[in-house]
Fold this sequence. Notes:
The protein has 320 residues and is of the alpha/beta class.
Amino acid sequence: MSTMRAVVIESTGEPDVLNVSEIEQPAAANSEFLVKVIAAGVNPIDAKTRGGRGVSSFLDYPAVLGNDFSGIVVSSPYEGHPIKPGDEVYGMSAVPRYSGSYAEFVTVPAMSLARKPKALSHVEAAAVPLAALTAWGMVVELAKAHEGQRILIHAGAGGVGHFAIQFARFFGAWVIATGSTRNLGWLTELGANEVIDYTTTRFEDVVTEVDVVIDLIGNVHDETGSRSLAVLRPGGLIVNAPSGSFDTLVDEATAAGVRSSHYKVSADGTTLAVISRLLESGDVRVFVDKVFPLEDAADAHRALETGHTRGKIVLTVSDV
């Protein structure tokens, strides 16, 4: 039996429940790849699950968290597969159905990874999949961003938000983004046409008749989700994530005369390959705020939970 180094939790709780352990290395079956993880992204869903929310009720302990990974293929599903051992890939390990990426190795279905963009380091690539796929699903698939459309994006400086701004602008929308004072200039650099400092200005006082709201906050802070309904045009659309942040969305939106949907991300390697082309061309870029070694996963979670991360946090797991 081969073993590997991983960060595991034996139960939910504060960041200190994250501990490095030696556990059994996963084995690939059917159409799965075995991937050596070089870097792993840290996402809010990881912290929620660790704390007892998120997908914690589905975990088997000891559990390994982490969805995003960038690494090197150890084994492919079959000899003729175009992605072969030694190739650099990135993607998502769908916790809790699969063991997570805070580990030296992951197994992942062929449909859930793509070739790593050559322009990105493993650390940069590990910051992309979950956040970029979430932003793509909300902005491109549901909102169908296009020229002439007005889109309001809350929490524009976060992992999902900084991709959402770039995707919306790429497809020609007029982008309005909310953020803190220190991030306003950066949001403009990302492509926001208008920026609103949520620490000094109520967005509903300065914005009206938008076509779409990309709500990355919900009602967990200052009833942002409910307040957003008032700035939509009649028949406009609000798309909400993360899960559980705006449970009354559908009823409130219906009462307000607007359309609504929650969004949950899929580990879709085909879409990730499309996003890769935008990253390679420079039309979209990823920002990594902080990098921690795997052993300091607890500190990475503490940094994430301050709520002031710009872009993404990444763990370094192995050497190339």
